[in-house]
Amino acid sequence: MKAVKITEGIHCLPVNLESYQLFEGMWPMPNGISINSYVVQGDKTALIDLIEDVNGKPADFEAELQSISLAPKDIDYLIINHMEPDHTSWLPIFHRKNPDVQIYLTAKAAPLLKTFGGIEENVHVISDGESLDLGQGKILTFYETPNIHWPETMMTFEQSSGTLFSCDAFGSYGTLNDVYFDDQLSTTQHDFFINEALRYYANIVASFSTFVTKGINRLADLDVKVIAPSHGIIWRENPRAIIDSYSRFASYLNGPAEPEVTVIWSSMYGNTEKLVNNIVQGVRKEGLPVHVHRVPEEHVGVILASAWKSSGLILGMPTYEYEMFPPMAWVIDMFRRKKVWNKKVLRFGSAGWSGGAQRELTALTEKLKWDFIDPIEWKGAPTETELQLALQQGQALAQQVKEFCAR
Question: Which of 8, 144, 284, 370 has the least CB density, counted as fewest CB within 10 Å?
Answer without folding.
Answer: 8
